Amino acid sequence: MTLFIQQLFDGLALGGVYCLAAIGLTLIFGVLRIPNLAHGALYMLGAYVTYFFLVTVGVPYVAAIGLAAVVLALLGVLMERLVFHPLRNAPHTHHMIAAVGAMFFFQAVAQALWGADFRRMESPISGSVTILGAQISWQRIVIVGTAVVVLGLLTWFVKRSIHGQTIEAIEQDRTGSSLVGISPSRVSMLTFGLAAALATVAAGLVAPINLLSPTMGDALSLKVFAIIILGGLGSLPGAVVGGFALALAEVMTSTYVSAAAGEGIAFVVIVLVLAIRPTGLFARAVQR
Amino acid sequence: MAPTRAIRPATTVAAALCTGALLATSACGGGSGSDSDTIVIGYSGPLSGGAAAYGKNIQSGLQLAIGDLNDAGVTVDGQEYRVQLQSLDDQYAPDAAATNAQRLAEQDDAAVVFIPHAGGIQAAQELNSSRTEFLLGAYSSDPKIVEQGNELTMMIPPSFESYAKPFVDKLTEDGQTRLGLLGTASEYGQEWTKLVSDEWNSRGGQVLTDNSIDYATVSDFAGPVSRTLAENPDVIFLGGPSQPTAVIIEEARRQGYEGSFLIMDQAKFEEMEKFTDPENLNDSIGVKPVRDYDDPGTDDLIDSYAEEVTKERPVTSEVALNYQAAAIVVTAMQVAGTIDDPTAIREALPDALGQVDDRFHVSGFPTEITDAGHLRNADLEAAYRTPEGEYEYLSIDQPDE
User: Fold this and answer.
1) Tens-digit pLDDT profile for residues B190-221
2) Is it the case that residue A152 has pLDDT exceeding 50?
3) Which H or E element spans position B82?
4) Sheet holding B79-89: strands in order across?
5) By the CB < 8 Å criterion, does A206 face chain B?
6) CA nearest B258: which of B229, B300, B219?
7) Structural domain includes residue A65
8) How far does B338 lie from chain A, in Å, by closest CA?
9) What is the mean pLDDT, run by run of 10 residues, along chain B of 401 residues?
10) Which phi and psi (to 5°) does residue B78 adopt?
11) CA-CA distance, A15 to B184, in Å (whole number)?
12) Cα Rg, chain A, nearest whole Å
């Protein structure tokens, strides 16, 4: 029972991280119809920039994540302008090639600036708490808490604020939105900025329990694609439910079946979803 | 050290043939890649991608040795030479390593090429005694690389098979019976896991569930650690790159584990100490840290590494053993009186060992080279960090080859 509780909390913490990273990816897909393969690289850069503010500059942990999120948001906007905007009328394969190129570029930048070796980021949040016999570290509780708060703010932003509503409007009907005066170009920039900032928050939260390296985004990149395929491409609730579902499936399968099965579960999920319900759990059916 | 990778002979040969053809055509027009008074030492390793830190470590070991050799002056057969390191990136891919090795040997006239991963070594072994001859400086502790009978291979580190028995001996002294497995999921890690499990079983101990994970892709180590601890192990086997290994050890201690750790040779105490509170490492067995050798050149290498490479990381055996190896091959060239005959250089290795300058004796300098080409030190030692945090050294008997 203790093991189950332990794994449940670990799964929730992992789910929080997956969710934050997956939402950005699904937003970009919803607005621009691009599978942003460089998303894992943005997450990696987010971790390094957080590390830079925390360790090199010396600002407090939460402020470091906040500052890094701002830097990455600007970088996201820049990436949209320089890489994807010029390709807006090009065939879809061009976006994918450009995204892969951006991914390698970011990895090379990180290796040039911070070196190829692993780095450790100490979090000021230490210690753990015993819940029903299981040792849960505060860092994991903070991850779950932050994920919930950020998701709440994001929902408010997208549903209630004018700028957020433009994102949803573009997702639903690009031409219609343009006709009522929404600039698709501005919404694209906003989405990229938001997505990069969310990935940075995820990376800043997970970095203290893991290590930084220029390739840390690779594994996550594949998993978040599995999540948004499971949840339905472009769907926000899909990314949230998918993130937690995949994390719990991964943790529980590793515990009760085998470690190898846990690693592979994401890909089993992709295959099953594509075979049985290709639109995902929360199909929005916004096909153009 | 390097995990093994499956090699694809067809791909390797095809890639090699294509490259060979290209090189042959380009060689007709251009001149040779090196000057006549330069000795080129080739190196193909992962300089970008996930294993880049490892590849760069080895590169800096070779580079430091070459710098020191040049400072002292290198004379072969009456002529003075400058030694130069020519590095190519293979991103850990066996076929890329083979192609690089061929390119280094043909285009840059390198008589010796270093490769630090078993997959790349095995791919290069298919080429190095055919049309293009070169001596392979093989940095991998996988014994397979000398079992193939390749006559132009020099295996640099101790074989990992030497470690399993003394490690298990030490950690079962107080009647420990339950072994938890938390190794890394690479092929190399799996070979280690099997070796340790067999050794443990042969003493009648109980080997628990295999919780091996890929250290590079797992986002949170807490889950695998708690699964392992749920079975109450007395000893946990683990190890991959030092840094994730240290984080896993820290997590296990945080969850209340008080037993021993049996750490595979890829992880180094001196690096792990920088990543976690060293107390977490108490009651563990692993490879002896370089800084604890009293060889004549140990302190100088530690200083020059801090000065010329980085102050952030300690010198590990990856740096030190390759530093020694580069000096050994250049000395062998001097003994053989040739810079471009790999066979003569290989034959000169046994004599060269005794003639390498003392400054290149850093961490267990090899005392012999086996017929199969394995550099060995008769006094190989392992390190046990006691529950009080002191290091003890145990001598290791090496298997016959």
Assistant:
1) 889 999 999 999 988 999 999 888 888 787 88
2) yes
3) strand B79-89
4) B74-76, B79-89, B38-45, B112-115, B135-138, B153-155
5) yes
6) B229
7) yes
8) 37
9) 48 49 42 67 91 92 96 93 95 92 94 94 89 92 88 93 91 91 87 93 91 84 89 94 92 92 94 92 95 93 94 92 96 94 95 94 93 91 93 85 67
10) 85, -5
11) 23
12) 19
**Chain-centroid distance, C-alpha B256:** 33
CA–CA dist A214, A20 (Å, integer): 20
User: What tokens were used for B346?
Assistant: 């290989």
Q: Which residue on chain A is closest to B228 by alpha carbon? A: A255
Number of structural domains (chain A) is 1
Domains of chain B plus CATH, in order, are 9-159+296-376 (3.40.50.2300), 161-264 (3.40.50.2300)
Helices (H), B261-341: 269-275, 298-308, 317-336
Residue A226 lies inside a defined structural domain of this protein: no
- Indicate the SS3 state at residue B159: coil
CA distance B244 to chain A (A): 7
ipTM above 0.90 for this complex: no
Across the A:B interface, residue pairs with CB atoms under 8 Å apart total 101
Mean pLDDT of the region A132-146: 86
In 3-state terms, what secondary structure has residue A45?
helix
CB-closest option in B220, B226, B230 to A14: B220
Sign for the pseudo-dihedral over CA of B308, B312, B318, B320: positive
Helix A61-79 vs helix A39-51: crossing angle, to nearest 10 = 140
Tens of pLDDT, residue by residue over B9-43, are 555 555 544 444 444 444 433 334 445 789 999 99
Q: Judge residue B340's burial from the number of C-beta atoms within 10 Å of its C-beta, 0-12 exposed, 13-18 middle, 19 or more buried.
A: middle
B220 vs A108, A120, A209: nearest CB: A209
Interface test with A, best of B226, B249, B309 (most A CBs within 10 A): B226
Name the residue range of residue A195's domain: 19-215
Question: Cα(B66)–Cα(B328) distance, rounded to whole angstroms?
Answer: 11
A40 assigned to some structural domain? yes
Composition of chain B by helix, strand, coil, percent to 5? 45, 20, 35
Which residues of chain A make contact with B243, given a CB cutoff of 8 A?
Answer: 117-118, 120, 211
B362: which 2 tokens? 């850093």
Chain A CA closest to residue B227: A255
Q: B255 and A7 in contact by Cβ < 8 A?
A: no
